[in-house]
Amino acid sequence: MSRAPEASHAATEIASQPACWASAARLASQVSELLPVPGERVAVVGCGTSYHMALAYAGLREAAGHGLTDARPASELDHRRGYDRYLFLSRSGTTSEVLAAAEELPPGSSATGLTADPASPLAQAVSTVDLSFAAEQSVVQTRFATSVLVLLRAHLGELSPASTQALAGQARQAVESPLPEQVMTSTHFTFLGRGWTVGIAHEAALKLREAAQMWTESYFAAEVRHGPISVLDRASFVWCFGPPPPGLAPDIEATGARFFTSDLDPLAQLVLAQRAAVELARSRDLDPDHPRNLSFSVVLGGTERSRGHDCTTPDGR
Asked: Which of 45, 146, 281, 294 fits 288 for a cystine, CB–CB 3.0-4.6 Å?
């Protein structure tokens, strides 16, 4: 195993999220013509982390009454549901499955890519929202994904300027506060969500899995009782994003597992989970910037493109 450096790109990028989120929220009003309007049937397409953000956005958009919204892995996009608009989420703009899906759109389709590389193949294939202010050096994706979701939440009207400022404040709190008790001593993690936050739960599980090689699972919150609860014990940490179903916390605690939830916005809680992934990686002498068997972009039969730049100034650029 390779020893983690004293400082990682991932840790720096996690800490930069409050500034990036402010930039993303401001950008939303500038690119509104490229984003879905109420009543459109929308497919939100991505891979890995981007797919998890697609799940979260789809849940939020449908809950807001804006219309049918399907989150689909790029490799499983099905056009038979008759979408009016496609959103492609890709940090690098080079992911093979995303590019293949963009090339196979029905004639006349409206499509937008959200990427950190405005010169990428995705940007050449579809109209593009440029989030290069959230570009990353680490293979482990953090600030790009959360900035995409902030932009889309702002476009939905769920985040006003005041609530965006409050959300950025919660992100700063998540960056600066201690990690939840027992995170560093647990060896099994189960992340739970309800509605849109199940996408956040899936993403938290992925962060610990890829960066720290931890045993992680993720479910809709009530589903944990239907089988997964059988593996919980004193070594387990169960994290619920958003209010848990009634009676769930005592059921979890009866297994000996640590149950955790928070009043922070689930996206700000994800920042805590990202930090936990990096700290657990360091404690296991792993490099969170270069996880085992992973590359910056999945380019089948090709080579990777270069990374982006840091997001360090007050406005996130």
From this structure: 281
Token digits of residue 276: 């936990």
Q: Which of 63-77, 220-234, 282-296 has the lowest mean pLDDT?
A: 282-296
CA-CA distances (angstroms) from residue 219 to 86, 134, 192, 201? 26, 28, 5, 7
Domains of the chain: 9-160 (3.40.50.10490), 172-283 (3.40.50.10490)
Segment 179-212, tens digit of pLDDT: 999 999 999 999 999 999 999 999 999 999 999 9
Residue the block writes with tokens 């700063």: 172
36 Cβ contact partners less than 8 Å away, ≥ 6 residues apart: 42, 61, 66, 67, 69, 84, 85, 87, 155
Q: Please classify residue 250 by burial: count the beta carbons closer than 10 Å to its beta carbon, then call 0-12 exposed, 13-18 middle and 19+ buried.
A: exposed
Q: Percentage helix, strand, coil, to 5, in the chain?
A: 45, 15, 40
Residue 305 has pLDDT above 60, yes or no: no
pTM of the predicted model as reported, rounded to 2 decimal places: 0.92
**What CA–CA distance (Å, rounded) separates 54 from 179?**
27
